[in-house]
Write the structure tokens for this entry.
Amino acid sequence: MSSVHVVHVLGTGDALATGIARTALNVAESLDPNRYRISVFFLRDDGAIGDRLRQLGVGVAAVGWTRGRADIRGAMRFARALRDAKPDIVHLHAGGLSPRFVSKVTADARVVVHYHSLEEEARTDGRSRRSSLAADLVIANSEATARSVRGNKPLVVYPGVAIPTVRESRASGEIRIGVAARLAPVKGISFFVDAMKSVAQSVPQLRAEIAGNGPERTSLESQVRDRELEKVVTFAGWVDDISQTMREWDIYVQPSLAEGLGISALEAMACGIPVVASNVGGLKEIIVDGVTGFLVPPGDTRALAETIWLLTTDATLRASMGNAARARVIEHFNLERESHAIRTAYEKLLA
């Protein structure tokens, strides 16, 4: 059986790409090393994620392709790196159409395009430009993401998350609510802040923590001050080990206006935390309304506040929903399930 070289292509190695890099790592760790060899190329810079990959023995290259098809020199560097690597499969997690065309022409490899989000999460005009053009296989992280792709229907592979040990019950006292997201308008966090103003009036022991960074942080901090919530809502910034932080939370909230899946919601569920989320995109696929948490209309501050209030006042409900959430992740969103699906897809491509 001949060796197969798979090159995973990511955009950048900064912290915001951690979730995408985790998929590549999970696949790499699950593949038979006698059958597969893994490398990771970063179109721009490799950053902290590149350092972590090197420590694990994964070959890493940063090609400095920064301006898409207008960057001819960057495209040439990418092509040269592929020629040197001689991959059998190029698994693209970023880059649009140009990298897949270069991959097809230069490497003569099977091209896998993997979509991890909705176009609306990155764009403001709401238009989808997702396409299966020049791809031998398209993978989507949810049915919602798959529906946004024109052309051949993608293979849906839900991401897996690590399952932490069962957390110890916290002593009664404060009710801690968490949000973990890129701080951008599409994540709907301003609606969460307004909901906290309403809930905090009747639940004085309420505390909320917002983990993440992004362009909306300054305006959100201003909103917290305007609502006089400085003692209720705090900003944690980027958190490397979010699962450890989540273990201190009682409720997780994801108020997104659009969401391809919601990996942070899955991580919270894996910790045994009930989730209140917007009834949009892939969130509808991972959360069972009324069982593992609640789904509310996007942008509806009143519904969000009422649902959060319900969970803050019922510890038994929080516990039962948290247990159900953890069980659902263990069964349907584990790492082995994800890696097995991708391994199977690779073998079909190579057959």
